[in-house]
Structure formats: C-alpha cells, structure tokens
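Risk register update: the risk of archive-format incompatibility is retired. Evidence:
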Amino acid sequence: MILSGKQAPYFNQLESVRSRISSACDLAGRQATDVALLAVSKRQPIEAIKGLQALGLNEFGESYASEGVEKLKIISDPELVWHFIGPIQSNKTRLIAEYFDWVQSVDRARIADRLNRQRPENMAPLQVLIQVNIDSEPQKAGVMPNQLDTLAEQVAELPAMNFRGLMAIPRFGKPKNEQRRSFSELKSLFENLKSRYKSVDMLSMGMSDDMDSAILEGSTMVRVGTALFGPRQG
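Archived output:
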C-alpha cells in the first residue's frame, strides 16, 4: 500500500488497534468482524478524520454536538456514519437529532422524547443506545441498572428512534478483573434486552485502555480515540 502524507501517521496506530481487536477475539473464540471499530474523533482535526477515512474507517464518534456538526458539515460525505457519544444537554438535542446517525448516550426519558420529536421526518430513524451507569458513579451520566427496563420500554416505543442496545463507560483505572466484572454485568443486561426486543444487537463497551477486556466479555463495538489519533487536541 502506498500511503499519502495524510494517511501515513495513522496507519501504524490503526494496524495496532486492529491487531488488539483480533487478538482479543481469538481469545474469546469470536471473529474479529464481530466487533465494530468506532473512531472517537472529538477534539481531533478534520485532517485526522480524513486520514483514517482514507484507510477505510467510516464511523466516527463525537462528544460535543456543535463541534461534531461543524465537522460533518465540512467533510460532507454521506458514506460516513456519525455517532454522538457524549452527555446530552437539553439545548443540544435538536442538533443531535438533525445531524447524527446514532446516539449512544440516551439516559433519561425526557431526552429521548426530545430527540424523537426533533428528528426530521425525511430522515431515517435515529439509531439509539441507552447509556448505563454500570458502576453507579454519582458524577457520571447513564441510567442506573435498576432503572434500565423502564427506560428501555419508553425508548422502544418512540417512532423516530430505533432502539439498538447499550453503552457504558466503567470506572476509570479499575484492575482488569474488576473491568471484566463490570463488562460482564453490562453483557447480562444486554442479553436480557436482546431477548425482549428484536432490534437490540449492539453492545458498545471498551475504549483504548480496556477494549481487550470488553471484547472478552462480549462487546460488539469499541470506541477508540487515543490509540488511533494520539492525545486529543486542546
């Protein structure tokens, strides 16, 4: 493969991430194709996104609505799939509903209702994951596990949304055995919902530091930023 100047800085990082995914899948007895790779592009420049796009990635995740919308307008490529993965403020739901393909961080009914009402009728349904506060951290977004079933029922009934599964961010810095315990608990919640909702098929867990543990416990999507792009800008 002949790499351009824009591609070259990201080739080794991408190959390293793909190798980690493949190795973890081998250990879990899974196919590497079972795990989707979402490039977390928040605070990364347009050139970096285009560099990874040129290497075959087409799914990107943003945590700040205004920043993400600005990027997708500049790049303006219908082949790219944009995920909103950050905490959702009420005054940003319209931007998210009108521009993003996926929202991975729905954690309360009021936000789900706003996104549903504000999704344009000429657009495909918004693909939705519910964020679970799997370690019950008071400062972190996400629905508590004991309230998940109620929120899932509400989300599944909204016509402009397609309920696809769960997302979580376990407590940072946990030992691997505790990481895996949290991921295992989320997988159990996911399997319960999957048995009740035909649309549920996505379990988004695992980032640069813990994707290996997440894959071993059943993740179907890892959200990777630093390992692909290097440290965030700003």
